[in-house]
Amino acid sequence: MNNWLINGEAGDAIKIDDRAVQYGDGLFETIAIRCAEPRFWPLHFERLQNGCARLSLGAPDEAQLKHELHMALQISGADPEFAVAKIIITAGQGPRGYRRPRDCTNTRMVRVFASRPRPRSDYENGVAVTRCQTRLAQQPQLAGIKTLNRLEQVLGQNELHDTEFAEGLMLDTDDRLVCGTMSNVFLVKKNKVYTPAITRCGVSGVMRRKIIEIMEARHIEYEVIDIGRDTVSSADELFLSNSQFGLLPVRQYEETRFAAGEQTLRIMRALVEQGVTESSA
Amino acid sequence: MNNWLINGEAGDAIKIDDRAVQYGDGLFETIAIRCAEPRFWPLHFERLQNGCARLSLGAPDEAQLKHELHMALQISGADPEFAVAKIIITAGQGPRGYRRPRDCTNTRMVRVFASRPRPRSDYENGVAVTRCQTRLAQQPQLAGIKTLNRLEQVLGQNELHDTEFAEGLMLDTDDRLVCGTMSNVFLVKKNKVYTPAITRCGVSGVMRRKIIEIMEARHIEYEVIDIGRDTVSSADELFLSNSQFGLLPVRQYEETRFAAGEQTLRIMRALVEQGVTESSA
């Protein structure tokens, strides 16, 4: 099962002295593979670059990563029409201690996994979501990027065991709605779209960015803004985004039921035109 | 260099699919080895147990871990009189995705490293410390335990590159003093000792607990309390603790100089009696 490429070599293990193992000192990207290509690659690479700069890690080499994505796809045996790639960039090996050595060299890991689209009914009828008890701590220095420190998301997802909820929405420690454990969230009220600001915590999702681009281009009124927990239940429409499933309407959140309304459907159709074909209701 | 024991077997690598690599889903302990034994083992094991419970990880087996510590010491070639052990417990391997599989089994890693005491002058004259720009996010669910999500400490320590500071003190996002990047902090004012509460962030250090035990036993007046950033400069004495160096007096923090005063010396002497012999000024 040597399906990972580690610095370009097939393998399935890394050194325990790697700073990813010791401290979660690194970043990752999860990228949809469609038609044998990484979808929205420029946005994923930009976030990875931005994350490396924020953590003072060496800059990743774009051509090398793209080459390795194609190699990883070949060795994976996954369907090139519908798969998912994961890239991990770490601060590399080092001696014991939080401080990075001066001469550390990134470790680069790439793998492609088989994947399946969600059931059509999820897009047609929407999914049910809940609210996680686990909160997101506010850390502006790490907000937006996808670091390997993901315990809050793990604890949030673990809350969903034995439930039928497709996602858990997460609040920050000041009761603001931020995102789902693995998605961004949008709500619609009187035809205007709102999505939480990702300035204190949360991940700035590639699909979220794509949706914002679409709203800009199509003059859909929207606002990136702090959203209190109680605002959600007064929304007319609610939907989630992530790079794998595209856009998913929410049909129920706690006591509140939503219709997949006009704005949600409009953005779904626009996404389909941009290649997010799984998002068609 | 197969100095790690991985689930009891010598090696130096773990599977990339281990959740430590993917999400930092696990815990660690760093333990002083003195006279071929892990010092204050019951306190380290208790914190590890507590951390496993908080993260819903399987409980570690105490006898097995102690046995592996002794094995790791033997294969390390380190001086059994003065070395340092690291234990890492992870949520084990799993498929892609934040949610832990139902049947996950902890991965257990143990290694002993050679170590050296700090220079005597650090204990006699105190060390100079600075304040990190990196803040600690407030996350009560993870406060106190030693998870593998340690990017804040990494960024804090990286700030100390090219400085002569022995440690960087860290504030939380509300300007409270919490701890150093790798130590706990105590200040003394009018002979009373104060140490920050570890309820929102920070690690509840074993040496900190030992010092609190000593203050209880010797009727030294103390308080565990929130401490604002400006309180530090008005302190009479300031000192740091961690499991490796014991207690280190601080001689300078930002513009403020401190003497290694009466209470600091009293606690240092008490620690020496408890086996923390490196802490003698």
Question: What does this protein structure show overall?
Answer:
The structure is a homodimer. Chain A is an alpha+beta fold and about 280 residues long. Chain A folds into two domains: about 5-115, D-amino Acid Aminotransferase, Chain A, domain 1; about 120-275, D-amino Acid Aminotransferase, subunit A, domain 2 (D-amino Acid Aminotransferase, Chain A, domain 2), CATH 3.20.10. Chain A is built from seven helices and 17 strands. Chain A has helices at about 20-25, 40-55, 60-75, 120-125, 150-160, 205-215, 260-275, and strands spanning about 5, 10, 15, 25-35, 35-40, 85-90, 105-115, 125-130, 165-170, 175-180, 185-190, 190-195, 220-225, 225-230, 235-240, 245-255, 255. In chain A, strands 8, 9, 10, 11, 12, 13, 14, 15, 16 and 17 form a ten-stranded mixed sheet that branches. The two termini of chain A are about 35 Å apart. The relative contact order of chain A is 0.14. The mean pLDDT of chain A is about 95. Strand 3 of chain A pairs antiparallel with strand 3 of chain B.
Which helices and strands appear, and what pairs or packs with what?
2 copies of one chain form a homodimer.
Chain A: E1 4-6, E2 9-11, E3 13-15, H1 19-23, E4 26-34, E5 37-38, H2 41-54, H3 62-76, E6 83-90, E7 107-114, H4 120-125, E8 127-131, H5 151-158, E9 167-171, E10 176-180, E11 184-189, E12 192-196, H6 206-217, E13 222-225, E14 227-228, E15 237-242, E16 246-253, E17 256-257, H7 262-273
Parallel strand pairs in A: 8-9, 8-16, 12-13
Antiparallel strand pairs in A: 1-2, 1-7, 4-5, 4-6, 6-7, 9-10, 10-14, 11-12, 11-15, 15-16, 16-17
